[in-house]
Write a structure and sequence with these properties.
Layout lengths: L1 H108 L10 H10 L14 E9 L2 E8 L2 H13 L3 E6 L3 E4 L6 E11 L2
Antiparallel strand pairs: 1-2, 2-5, 3-5, 4-5
Amino acid sequence: MIRVNLLPQKRRKAGGGRGELWLVASLLAVALEIVGCLMLYGAKQEQLQQELDQNKALQAEISKIKDVSKNHEEIKRKVAQLREREEAISKLQTARTGPTAMLLEVARLLTPGRGPSVDPNQLSKIRRENPLQDYNPNWDPRRLWLTRFVEADRTVRLEGMARDGEDVSELARRMNLSSYFRDVQLLPARREAEQSSGLTMVAFKLEAKVRY
């Protein structure tokens, strides 16, 4: 009877040991899962913080760009104003000095012993390649005089009287060589008697573009 009663008791103890092992294993699994979740949560938190920091940096950069853009528009406006003032000043200076220099050049063209303002190298080249375009240094400008001088929109018109057509051609050659004139054109001329002397003269007209 004693042996019979002991066998079931041993089986119950063995079953109880296995239950304890299962419980311990389950607890360990849960603990490991909790640790894994905590580690994953920590990693995600760190990643989230990095993203937030980058977002803050980008927001700060965007704010700077916006500030710079505002200043840029203001700077562009001021630069445009300065350019307008510079252009106005340049036009005033050109209007003040340009016509004066051009009139002085006309005076040089009609002064005995003087000639056009031209680059010496260019003049030497013209004399070699086409001597007929060169001016006559011995020409007497007193053979020609101006009766009208008009300048508008960088175009000048000269009217006057000359002893003959060669005098008019000499003036046109000098103007073509001058650095102050270009596109010189001889307009139709006519012969008429000069009132004071009664001599037959050439009434001429010239047009040219002005450089200044």
